[in-house]
Write a structure and sequence with these properties.
Layout: H1 2-15, H2 51-73, H3 91-108, H4 116-132, H5 161-164
Length: 182
Amino acid sequence: MDQSAEQARQLDSLASAPAPSPFAAFGMPALPGMPPQPVPPEPRPILELRGEEYENELDSLSDWVDDFLMAAYGAEVTTSAPWCDRWQEHDDVVAWLHALWMAYEQHKDPEAGLSGLFVWHRDFLTHALAAVRAPGGPLSACMTDPDRPAHRLLPGPKPSTRSANTDPEGPQDTEDPGEDTA
């Protein structure tokens, strides 16, 4: 009878929701005998996403950029700080702003501590906006005056000669067959 009661208690404890690991915040595994905690999915760079997943992430990013980032940190649009109302069409700008948004989410979390947002400003915001809005940066051919909206995608570099080589046998001998190599 005692053994049956003990087995019933074990089954009940296995059926109940596991208690969170006191070490989870430090990335440490649970104690032996404790069930493992589910691991949240790793964030992926937006340019690795496809289809609806990409569109949903871009919609959320656009809301953050329009409603928060540019409202608070947009400053004036000038030749030294261009902007583009169609920034979502500039893949490099999307990648920069997505990384900035992910860093913001991480650093505003209470686990980042009281200085989390200062670190975000110092290490992420200033650098990202300087790169995105640089006079020779990805938006340099776009709007430099708010009264004259403009948008132009600049052509990127062509593929390297190595990636353009489609010969499956690899590089060919370039030696002139008429020359004597003796």
